[in-house]
Amino acid sequence: MKTKYRAWFRCFAGCDEVYELDEIIYRCRRCDSLLEVRHDTDALRQRGAQEWKELFARRWRSPSGPFSSGVWGKKEWVCPRVDDANIVSLGEGHTPLLHVPDFGGRIGVPDVHVKLCGNSHTGSFKDLGLTVLVSMVQQMRAEGKDVPAVACASTGDTSAAVAAYCARAGIRSVVFLPRGKISPAQLVQPVANGALTLALDTDFDGCMDLVQQVCSKNNIYLANSMNSLRIEGQKTVAVEICQQLGWEVPDWVVIPGGNLGNVSALGLGFEMMHELRLIDRLPRICCVQSAQANPLYLSYLKNFESFEPQTARETLATAIQIGNPVSLCKAVSTLKAFGGIAEEATEEELADACAQADRSGLFTDPHTGVALAGLIKLAGRGEIGPADRVVVISTAHGLKFAQFKIGYHWKELEGVESRRANPPVELPADYDAVVSAIFEHIEA
Fold it and tell me: What is the CATH number that goes with domain 97-120+230-409?
C-alpha cells in the first residue's frame, strides 16, 4: 500500500548523506557516524495535532490488526515504508503508566509514575524496537532482497525480542551473549524461540564487536540499537506517556542507561510531538547508570568534554553492564537538548530502591532499580522537587530477575545489606505461633 508519508536514514553527524530505509546500512559511508531516521514532517503537518490525537485514540482501542499495536498504531510516525501485510507484531506497546503516590510520598515527590515497558510480550521494552526492525526485514525479503538472518549482541533482553519476532516472521536469528552473565530466565528465551544462541567467553562489548564483524561480512542484518529502526519503535514510549497523561508533559523522565539508545529514542518521541504541536514543551531527562558501568556519568561530570570507554564491572543490573555504549553521541545530544543530567547508582542503592518500590505493588527489575535510585538521589538533593511530575521508565519485568529478588530478601547479595529484606517466617504448624507472627507483622 502506497502512502504519502516518507522516512529515510540521515547521517547523525550532519553531513549530507541520506539512505533509504531498505538499505542494509548502520553508519554513514562518508564519515562513519551513526544514522538517524528522519520523517517528512511537512506531510505529517497536513494532519493537525488534534486529528493525530484522535487517530491515535481510535487505534488504541482497536481489538485486532496491525494498528492494535502500540507501535504500529503510530505507523506514520514510525515506519511508513513497511506495508501492513509485512508488519510483524506480537501486541507490543500500550503498557501501563502506573501512578505510585505512596512511593513518591516517601521520597518527597508525590507525583511519580512508572512506565511499565516490561509488561510486553518478551518482558522488556526491546519489543518496541524489534517489531519495527523485523518488519523492515520482512519487507525487504518480500521484495526479493537477500537477508538470510538477523543477529544481535545482547545482555539478555534484546536477544529475547530478536528471537521472538524472528520466530513470528519465520526468519533465522543468531544471538551473541556473554557466557554466564545473564539470568537463566533471559537465557532460555532465545533458546525456546529457536535462535542460534552463542554464549561467548567475553563481555557485552566483546560480543558487540564480534557481531558487527559477522554482519558486515555476511549480509546478516544487525539488530542492535545502532540500527536506527530500533529507535523508531522505542520512541513511541514518549508518545504513550503523554497520551496516558491526557497529553500533558511530565517535568522529568528518568531512564536507566546502558547502550544508551533509549535516551535518544525518548528524546525523538518528545521532539516529534513538540514539532507537530501535540505538546507545548519538553521534559527534562535524567539518565542513570550503574556505578559499575558508568562511562556516560563520568563524562557528564566533565561537561561531556571528553569520554573514556571502560571495562564494565559486574553489576546486578546486567543488561546495562556496558562500558563502551554504541549510542553515546546520540544520548549526549539528547541530554543537552533536554536540559538533562546523568547520575549513578551503587549496588546497594539500586537493590534498596527496588525493595522500596516493590512495597507499592511493583515488581521491579534491577535496571529499573537503577533509575529509581537516581530519582531518590535527585529528590534528596532538591533537583527534583515536590511539585514535579516524574515518569520513571521501567525497562523489563521483574520476573526475568527472580534470582535477584531471592538474593535480596534472603540476604545473599554480596555487598548489599538488604535493609528491607522480607524473607518467609518459618514456624511450626501451631495456632498460637501463627497468630503471634501475624499480629507482630500487622503492628510493626
Answer: 3.40.50.1100
pLDDT of residue 326: 86
Q: Nearest 10 degrees: CA dihedral of 17, 23, 29, 33? A: 80
DSSP state of 315: -
Q: Which of left, alpha, beta for 64 (phi over 0: left; psi -120 to 50: alpha)?
A: beta
| Residue 33 identity (one-letter amino acid) | S
CA dist., res. 72 & res. 59, Å (int): 9
| Predicted TM-score (pTM) above 0.90 | yes
Residue 2 has a pLDDT of 52
Strands of the sheet with 149-153, listed across from one edge: 196-200, 172-178, 149-153, 221-222
Distance CA 265, CA 270 (A): 9
Q: Torsion over CA of 47, 17, 207 and 86, rounded to 10 degrees?
A: 40
Per-residue three-class SS string for 331-380: HHHHHHHCCCEEEEECHHHHHHHHHHHHCCCCCECHHHHHHHHHHHHHHH
The residue-averaged pLDDT of 191-220 equals 94
